[in-house]
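Milestone M4 deliverable, item 7.
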Amino acid sequence: MTTTDTDRAVLRAEETPGEPRRDTGRDAGRDAPGEVPGRSRREPSPSRLSAADILTLGNAVCGFSSVYFITTAVLVPYLTGGPGDGTLRQGAATAVMLILMASLFDLCDGLVARKFRSSGMGAELDNLSDLISFGLAPAYFVVVWGLVGEGYHLGLTVVGAVAVLLAGVLRLARFSVTSTRDGMFQGMPIPFAALTVVSVVLLELPFALTLALVAGVAWLMVSRVEYPKPTGRMAVATVAWAAVNIGCLVAWAAGAPGAEGLLVTGCALQLSLAALLPLVATGRRIKARRDRGQAA
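Output delivered:
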């Protein structure tokens, strides 16, 4: 299951460390065709929501709803000795599907913002929504997994969940104030990381291995490892991949024949993508250097 960080270029400046943010998406300081030279176009109202902002809020709603279903359909039934494994499976599947839907909102709001522009608060809305859907929700998913699982060490589970949450906070903060090469993210994008963490948990691996992989994902978020941005065909592939995984989750929740195998395959592919995509980014970088060398 995969997606990527929102690439809301119209919301974020081409910043360098130490410089204040500036909204390049609104063409600050440029005269629009037909305007009087020196008179800048009217800035969008920071309090008026744009279409991109509505999609961003949809991301936040999905993240909150995921936490809600993890609590009411997984944690509460477990603590009260209520419904059995089937209900727990449906609750977990619904929570993960909502994180997937949040990632689709996150992808689409960037596309809409680049085409139609966004409000002055778009970047802030984006960060806050991402923190709910891809920081809090997967961290909470890990904690509940530690509670309902048998033979798991809850204290270590909480440490792993906190690592995911803090890495997400740092990842979003760094993304807001640093510049990266075109077409690349520095560190694993937080939506991709959230879905990778959830995939690790759903695979039901041994406790120590699961915790190590969760910690590894947290490290990748704040590392300098590069991941390609989802543009062009990769963006289409991202949407298709998310749709396929939503279908697998629906089948798993319904207990369809073979759904368990499909879920395991999807989760394993997600982990494989987490390892392979940096190699794609490295290949792009080498190709760009060769092209520059030939041009020179």
